Amino acid sequence: MCAINTFPAPGPKADLEEGTVLSPRFGADGLITCVTTEATTGELLMVAHMNAEALARTVQTGEAWYWSRSRQELWHKGATSGQVQTVVEMLVDCDQDAIWLKVKVAGDGGCCHTGRQSCFYRKIEVTHGETRLVVA
Amino acid sequence: MCAINTFPAPGPKADLEEGTVLSPRFGADGLITCVTTEATTGELLMVAHMNAEALARTVQTGEAWYWSRSRQELWHKGATSGQVQTVVEMLVDCDQDAIWLKVKVAGDGGCCHTGRQSCFYRKIEVTHGETRLVVA
């Protein structure tokens, strides 16, 4: 298990799409997009990013780890807030450039640093081609 | 409406998080992440990217437009497949670097280029620290 944070390099398209090997396609910035939903309700909680180490730690520990782009550091979600995310299911998309975590959230069950349950608390309303954000 | 694809530059954190102005934070590559779910079931269909023009066209037309990173071109989802995505609701996250589209899909209701309904058709199973992809 020592090399678990070294994922195999992505192979041909057929392997990527139909194979059984997780070979995540990290971007030029070394990151892969992660979508996190609440395991029971399906609510979209957040969109974040993982580098190889964050993904490996998530696999190893069963808790969500991300790469904080603003702080430029590895981020064990909930380590300070108590809102630890326990992974219930983990999926990958067709071309392996996105991860989907279904989680149970500890603490107060929240996710967003603004105090909301989900980071997606505003709708984009469109009126005569003009956009306006409205709290959902 | 002529300048709808020119979104205002992101302002201070308080405006980004609590304001009513959509000021999307496109990355260095000019793209913002978009999560697309089925409006009724909530199923996660795909994760894709939008540049300012794709986002503007989505707002203007009520149908999902993305930026295809592989083809490096604007992508009206469903234009060739018939799987056009009509936007039912559109949300933005706290720091405005991710968009969430809730859509109804035309045609056969599918989304993935492999023929599946959703791009997320494989679970990541972990056994003794080793990962394996299994069709969900």
Describe this structure in words.
The structure is a homodimer of 136-residue chains. Chain A is built from 2 helices and 8 strands. By secondary structure, the first copy, chain A, is mainly β. Chain A has a single domain, classed as Ubiquitin-like (UB roll) (Roll), CATH 3.10.20. In chain A, a hairpin with a 2-residue loop joins strand 7 and strand 8. Chain A starts with 12 loop residues before the first helix and ends with a strand. The mean pLDDT of chain A is 94. The interface between A and B is large, with 48 and 48 residues.
The biggest beta sheet of chain A reads:
4 strands, mixed
Strand tally of chain A is 8
Helix amount of chain A: 10-25%
The assigned structural class of chain A equals mainly beta
CATH top-level class of chain A: Alpha Beta
Computed over alpha carbons, the radius of gyration of chain A is 16 Å
Tally the helices of chain A.
2
Mass-distribution shape of chain A: globular
The proportion of residues in beta strands of chain A is 35-45%
Report strand order across the widest sheet of chain A. 2-1-6-5
* Oligomeric grouping of the chains: homodimer
The largest chain-to-chain contact, stated as pair and per-chain residue counts, equals: A-B, 48 and 48 residues
Overall residue-averaged pLDDT value of chain A: 94
CATH topology descriptor of chain A: Ubiquitin-like (UB roll)
Q: What count of domains describes the coordinates of chain A? A: 1
Low-confidence stretches of chain A: none
Order of helices and strands of chain A: HEEHEEEEEE
Enzyme class (chains A, B): hydrolase
InterPro entries (chains A, B): PRA-CH, PRib_AMP_CycHydrolase_dom, PRib_AMP_CycHydrolase_sf
Pathway (chains A, B): Amino-acid biosynthesis; L-histidine biosynthesis; L-histidine from 5-phospho-alpha-D-ribose 1-diphosphate: step 2/9; Amino-acid biosynthesis; L-histidine biosynthesis; L-histidine from 5-phospho-alpha-D-ribose 1-diphosphate: step 3/9
GO biological process, one term (chains A, B): L-histidine biosynthetic process
